[in-house]
Amino acid sequence: MPEQFEVRLPDDVRLHVETTGPADAELTVVLLHGWTLDGRSWHRQLAGLEELTAGRVRVVAYDARGHGRSSCMALRTATLAQLGDDLAAVLDEVAPTGPVVLVGHSMGGMTIMEYAHRHPGHFTARTAGLVFVSTTAEGHTHTAYGLSPRIARLIRLAETTGAGVLARCGAWRPPRALLRALRPSLRWLLFGDRCDPTDIRLVTSAVARATLRSIGGFRASIGTQHRLDTLTELGNVPAAALVGDRDRLTPPPCAESIAGALPTTDLTVCPGAGHMLMMERPDEVNAALLGVVRQALDDTAALEPLG
């Protein structure tokens, strides 16, 4: 069973953290979820890592501020920069020594880039591998929702205006009845050709746990972040980037630009998949993650291949 506890940050925000695996493991894998989601997003990776790494890896998953079971925060701290600082604080508290592999989905991947930008010495000293899942280093540059540019601009205008309103709503959470009504829209936006009913229910449940402040507040920095220059300075760290070719939020050009800036990146494009790759294509995500873990451990012979 995972160990559950809280990490209290300097501004008194409390982060819900879950860990599995031995505290003295050779390597720590940290899973960072996407915007409006929570650590449960990684349930298929948690099971896969535990089975395939034979106790050599400790896995840490936590809910970002304002998400899941973590507490709400001041609006001014609803930024990617703050999330990068939070990641540094979580590492210091939960995995203060040893190498780490950082795995980020969507906003989680952007959090990793912000951590690398704001804490370069810390990042270099600790990070042994990176996995970017359905994320971007270029804000909303490539986000067209799979629609025409004109309609995409209108949607973005409505989205950013609505985000500003939601950000001022504090710790309130979306009504579950409304989210159930919006489930077909969430399915269209987040998933590709196939969607397991349990996955869309989990996503809807996660959005219901996110505070309106976090749903609205993070939108501005997510849309404007540009960190390709940061990626070019990361050297030879083993990395993987995965994207679905039906991703309406972070389409393939997002992953391609990451791979272009960080040449050590192994790029995987998943046909027919959308934004929720770790649910839609768990085998591909687990294979890429295990490949980076193997390199980080520098002991490929001791780990069985994915079957």
TrEMBL record:
Which SUPFAM superfamilies does the record cross-reference, listed alphabetically? alpha/beta-Hydrolases
Q: Coiled coil: which residue ranges?
A: none
**Span of domain AB hydrolase-1:** 29-288
- Which GO terms fall under molecular function for this chain's record? hydrolase activity
Q: Which Pfam families match?
A: Abhydrolase_6
The record's keywords, sorted A to Z, are: Hydrolase, Oxidoreductase, Peroxidase
Identification of the protein by name? Alpha/beta hydrolase
Q: Which organism is it from?
A: Micromonospora cathayae
